[in-house]
Design a protein that fits this description.
By secondary structure, the protein is α+β, with helices and mostly antiparallel strands. Helices cover 29% and strands 28% of the residues. Bound molecules: adenosine monophosphate. Adenosine monophosphate binds at residues 116, 139, 146, 149, 176, 178-179, 184, 207, 210, 250, 261-262, 371.
C-alpha cells in the first residue's frame, strides 16, 4: 500500500501522538496550526496559517487522503470549507455539537442519555431564574470555548451569583446542577468507515482544578451493567452522528445513575494509557478509522494508571527508575496549568499498577485545587 496522507487541524500533543502512531502504518500527517512553536514541529510537516484562510486550507488539503482535527475549537465553518476540499472525519456536525455545551446537552437528551439538570443563561435575570430551577450548588459554564475547567464557576450560595456574573457574564452561558458524583468515568469508542464500533474498557478519571490528573484503566470495581450502559450511550452518539474516528464520552457515576458530562469528538487525554495499556492505541485506531482501515483490538494489556504532568516536569531518571513507568513529554515550555506530558504505569495486576503509580506520584508537584475561571 502506498503512503496515506492525513491532514490534522491543530498541532498540539494530541497531534504529536497521532503523527507518531502514523509512522509504522505508513501514514504521513500534515498539520495546520495558526501559531508557531507547536509540539508536532520536530516530527511532521507543519503549515502555519489560519484555519479560516481559504488559501491556507488549499495548501493544507492539497494531496490529502483525509483530514481530521485534534483541536476542538476549530471554527465549524473552517471545517465545512475543508470538507469541500477533501474528506473530513469525523464530520463537521460532530465538531459543532461538541463545541456548544448547551447544544451538546440537548443532543444527549434527545438520544435518551441522562444529563445533570441545566438551563441556558443569557442575562443576569436569566441567571436568577436558572438558579430557581436548577438549585444550588450549581456550576455556571460558558457555552463555548471552555475546556479543562476554564470558563466555569461553582455557585454554592446565592451570594456567589454576583461575582460569578462579573466573571462570566456577557457570554452565552449554561447553569448546570452540581453533581455529587461517586466518581467520574470516561468511555472511549472507535467507529470505522463502515459503521463498525469498538470500545476501550471504561476508565475512572480524576480531575482537580477542572483538569484531568489521573485515569485508571480499567475503572476499578465497575459494575458490568454500568460499563454496558456507558458503551450504549457512546454508541447512540456514534450512530446519530454517523461518526468516524475516536470519540470520548465523559460521565458522572452518581446516586442518580450515570449522567453524561461532555463528549470530545477526537482522541482524548483519558485514553493516553492505551499507548502501552491496550492492544491498539487510540491514536492508531483513530488513524485506522479515518483511513478506512480495519480497527485494531481495544483489549487492555494488564492494568494502567496514567498521570498527567501539569505545569512542572519531574526528574526523568527518577520516573524511569519506577518499573512499568512510561514517560511521554510533549516538548512544551513549562507554564502553570499547562499539560506538559504524561506517565503511564502499566502492570499485570491493578494493585501493582496502583502501588507503582503512587511511587511516580510522589515525584510530582501536588495539584492546585478548585475549578478555574
Ligand atoms: P468540564 O470541562 O465540563 O468537563 O468540567 C471539568 C471538571 O469539572 C469535570 O470533569 C468535573 O470534575 C467538574 N465538573 C464539571 N461540571 C460539574 C458538575 N455539574 N458537577 C460536578 N462536577 C463538575
Amino acid at each position: 500500500m502506498s503512503m496515506l496522507r492525513v491532514g490534522v487541524l491543530g498541532a498540539g500533543q494530541l497531534g504529536r501522538m497521532l503523527a507518531l502512531a502514523g509512522y509504522p502504518l505508513g501514514v504521513a500527517c500534515r498539520f495546520l496550526e495558526p501559531g508557531p512553536g507547536a509540539p508536532v514541529a520536530p516530527l511532521a510537516e507543519l503549515l502555519e496559517g489560519s484555519f479560516e484562510d481559504p488559501e491556507a486550507l488549499d495548501r493544507f488539503a492539497a494531496g490529502l487522503d483525509v483530514a481530521t482535527f485534534e483541536f476542538e475549537n476549530v471554527p465549524a465553518g473552517a471545517l465545512q470549507a475543508l470538507a469541500e476540499r477533501c474528506p473530513v472525519r469525523p464530520g463537521p456536525r460532530a465538531l459543532e455539537v461538541g463545541q456548544d455545551r448547551l447544544d451538546e446537552k440537548c443532543f444527549f437528551r434527545e438520544l435518551g442519555i441522562p444529563v445533570p439538570s441545566f438551563e441556558a443563561v443569557d442575562d443576569r435575570a436569566g441567571l436568577e431564574r436558572a438558579v430557581d430551577s436548577v438549585g444550588l450548588p450549581a456550576v455556571l459554564k460558558t457555552r463555548r470555548l471552555g475546556y479543562d475547567g476554564k470558563g466555569q464557576v461553582v455557585l454554592r450560595e446565592i451570594t456567589d451569583l454576583e461575582q460569578a456574573w462579573r466573571r462570566l457574564g456577557g457570554r452565552g452561558l449554561l447553569l448546570e446542577a452540581w453533581v455529587p458524583f461517586h466518581r467520574e468515568l470516561a468511555v472511549i469508542a472507535a467507529r470505522g468507515l463502515r459503521g463498525e464500533e469498538t470500545f476501550y474498557p471504561v476508565v475512572e478519571t480524576e480531575h482537580s482544578g477542572g483538569i484531568l490528573r489521573r485515569s485508571t484503566a480499567p475503572a476499578p470495581d465497575l459494575d458490568p451493567d454500568i460499563s454496558a450502559l456507558a458503551r450504549d450511550y457512546a454508541s447512540r452518539i456514534l450512530g446519530a452522528l454517523d461518526y468516524v474516528g475516536i470519540l470520548a464520552l465523559e460521565l458522572f457515576q452518581s446516586r442518580e445513575g450515570l449522567l453524561a458530562n461532555e463528549m470530545a469528538p477526537r482522541v482524548h487525554n483519558s485514553a493516553h494509557w492505551t499507548l502501552e495499556g491496550a492492544e491498539t492505541s487510540q491514536f492508531e485506531n483513530h488513524l485506522r478509522a479515518i483511513c478506512g482501515l480495519p480497527l485494531g483490538s481495544t483489549s487492555p494489556v494488564g492494568c494502567s494508571v496514567m498521570l498527567n504532568l501539569i505545569g512542572t516536569l519531574p526528574d526523568t531518571a527518577r520516573v524511569l527508575a519506577v518499573p512499568g513507568a512510561h514517560l511521554h513529554l510533549y516538548g512544551k515550555e513549562p507554564r502553570p496549568g499547562r499539560k506538559l506530558g504524561h506517565i503511564t504505569v502499566r502492570a499485570d495486576e491493578a494493585s501493582r499498577a496502583r502501588e507503582l503509580a503512587e511511587r511516580v506520584e510522589a515525584l510530582l508537584e501536588p495539584p492546585d485545587a478548585g475549578i478555574g475561571g
